[in-house]
Amino acid sequence: MQMKLKIIADEAKNMYNLRLGFIKIMKKKEILVLEDLLGSNKKIASEIRKELTQKGILTINFMSSPGAGKTTLLERIAEHMRPQYHMAVIEGDIETERDAERIRAKGIPAWQIVTGGACHLEAKMIGKLFPKIPPDLDFLFIENVGNLVCPASYDLGENIRCVLLSVPEGDDKPKKYPKAFTTSDCLILTKSDLLSVVPFDSERAQKEALEINPKLTVFMTSSLKDLGIKELVRFFITSRQLFLDKNA
Amino acid sequence: MHELSIVASLFEIMEEKAQEKGSKTIISVKLQVGKLSGVVPEFLITAFDMYKKGTIAKNATLEIEDIPLTIQCKTCGKTMVLDDFVFICLECGSQDLKTVTGTELLLEKMELEL
Predict the structure, then answer these.
(1) What is the mean predicted confidence (pLDDT) over A90-95?
(2) Which candidate, A135, A145, A131, A141, places its Cα nearest to that of A108?
(3) Which pLDDT belongs to residue A246?
(4) Do the beta carbons of residue A79 and residue A106 sit within 8 Å?
């Protein structure tokens, strides 16, 4: 009886409050958004690409797991590019200035992005460095944070994306990390001087990489023995020429 | 683990859209995540639950629709779902394919309290 009275009392109170507008009736609305979560990164990246292209700079993004030999390969590339071509390097690392120092020691301008924990570079980080990039460059290399997963999702405004795979990492990696391979233009196999000491089936690695991305151009290199670097550099020079002709 | 950066971008869009509609509470969110998006849905959920605290989506639920990898063969014209990342037409063996779905990373819709 008491319970029933309480309910009646509550209802009366509610009606009173409603009339005075004290209780707002909750209204729901569903809205369709359909927006790309990486849309803002893509927008910045395409602005970067447009500006660098106008200056005649070919931008190349290097992705790989840590220790695949990105910095050493860039040191070698620098030697082959000189003196005809001007290049610069943006280094991405979670900590330290070490990689940029190594590149500068080769007489090449280099800027370090220290991500402080982030596992990849984003276009806005490249955008911040923009004022420092000299306009007379021919090539801008971006060495991404060592990680075969996350960097693959972020366009940095590059013209060519390269994925590096070192011989000691194993020939089974392309299918394990498909995104890095499907989004790349080039596969650079590194540390080929170790082929005689580690079991790495380079045919399998190439076959599996081409199965997930038939458009990949494959290079076999050894920075230590200076093998295949000349061919790689020639590929970059030709690509730049093609891209200059296309944008002329 | 770049899912937290993705979730940060998601919240930027969510908050902007809610504000446009004059809503201060987001009830639910639905995403489309492709098999080739490079994102792990489980990590997205964890990151979402961490990130939502103290925001207008603090009580929001997250639904993720997994989008399969679908290709269309440019040689034989057939459309099919690929279970592995082997980009070869299951019908004719051609490698000349177009990706139809599977790269999505989209905020599809959300439910707002008005």
Answers:
(1) 94
(2) A141
(3) 87
(4) yes
Spell out, as residue ranges, where chain B has pLDDT lower than 70.
none
In this prediction, residue A11 carries a pLDDT of 72
Residue B55 lies in a domain: yes
Quote the domain boundaries for residue B50.
3-68+101-113
Local structure of A208: helix, strand or coil: helix
Residue type, A6: K
Q: Are B34 and B105 in contact (CB under 8 A)?
A: yes
Tokens, residue B11: 């919240």
Q: In terms of DSSP bridges, do strands B105-113 and B25-34 run parallel, antiparallel, or are they unpaired?
A: antiparallel
Q: Which of B87, B90, B96 to mutate to test the interface with A (most CBs of A within 10 A)?
A: B87
| pLDDT tens readout for residues A56-80 | 999 999 999 999 999 999 999 999 9
Tokens of A138: 């021919």
B87 and A35 within 8 Å at the Cβ level: the answer is: no
Q: Do B2 and A149 touch (CB under 8 A)?
A: yes
What's residue A17's pLDDT? 63
**B67 part of contact set with chain A, CB < 8 Å:** no
**Residue B73 covered by a domain:** no
Would you say residue B88 lies in a domain?
no
Residue of B nearest to A41 (CA): B9
Angstrom distance (rounded) from CA A65 to CA B82: 26
* SS3 of residue B85 by DSSP: coil
State pLDDT tens for residues A121-162. 999 999 999 899 999 999 999 999 999 999 999 999 999 999
Q: What is the CATH number of domain A39-246?
A: 3.40.50.300
pLDDT above 90 covers a percentage of chain B that reads 92
CB within 8 Å: A34 and B105:
no
Please report the DSSP string for A20-57 in residue order.
Answer: HT-SPPP-EEEEEEEEETTHHHHHHHHHHHHHHHHTT-
If one counts the domains in chain B, the total is 1
Read off the CATH number of the domain in which B62 is found: 3.30.2320.50
| pLDDT confidence bin for A18, thresholds 50/70/90 | low
Residue A177: CB atoms within 10 Å: 22
The alpha carbon of residue B49 is apart from the nearest alpha carbon of chain A, in Å, by: 17
Could you give the ipTM of this predicted complex? 0.91
Evaluate whether residue B78 is within a structural domain.
no
